[in-house]
Amino acid sequence: MVRLIFRLGSLLSLCLGVIAATIDSIQSVSISSVALTPISATISDFSPDSLVALQALIEQYLGQATWSAFSTVILPQPAFAVFFGLALVFWMMGYKKPSPAGRFAA
Question: Can you say whether the dihedral through the CA atoms of 68, 75, 44, 62 is positive or negative?
Answer without folding.
Answer: negative
